[in-house]
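User: Structure please.
Assistant: Input sequence and predicted structure:
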Amino acid sequence: MFIQQKIFQSEKKYKAFLIIYYMKPLIPSHKENKRYLLIQGKELKRNIEKAIIEFSGILGMSKCGLIFISSDLNNNSAVIGINRESLDLVRASLVVFPEKMEVLKVSGTLKSLRALQSRG
């Protein structure tokens, strides 16, 4: 992790220094790879989080890096993003959970999932 430092001076009577730390952007090979899932079920936002926490705990929840991309209340479907390595963990937790949730499609890009979600 590289941290760079910038120092700004004000031109007033009293010289004040403002230090801003920022991180360099990651190169593409160091970014985590995402997979996007199209899921169908009821009350998905609450049930997906609950299913993952019950199945794998808080550590598993943090490893999967769950992100809610979009949801469609008419079709009871949602698109979520997860870490590629935790795909099997998330699928298993959704199957074991008592509420019925079904993974309709897994994709590496959002474009195909959004088209499929809008068709319903």
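The radius of gyration is 21 Å.
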